[in-house]
Amino acid sequence: MDTCHLTHISQSPTEDGFVQNPYPFYDRARAIGPLVWWEDYNRACATTHDAVGTFLKDKRFGREIPAEMVAEAPAHLKPFWDMESHSMLELEPPVHTRLRGLVLRAFTSRRIAALAPEIEVLCNQLVDHFPSGDFDLLAAYARPIPVIIIARLLGVPESMSDQLLTWSNAMVSMYQARKTRAIEDAAVRATVEFSDFIRGYIADKRKSPADDLISELIAAEEKGEKLSTDELITTCILLLNAGHEATVHTIGNGVKILLETGIRPDGNAEAIAEEVMRFDPPLHMFTRYAYEDVTLYDHAFRRGDQVACLLAAAGRDPLPYPDPRRFDPTRKRVLHHAFGAGIHFCVGAPLARLELDIAFRTLFARVPALALAEKPRYANVYHFHGLERLLVSNAKG
Question: N or C terminus of the chain: which is more exposed, having fewer CB within 10 Å?
Answer without folding.
Answer: C
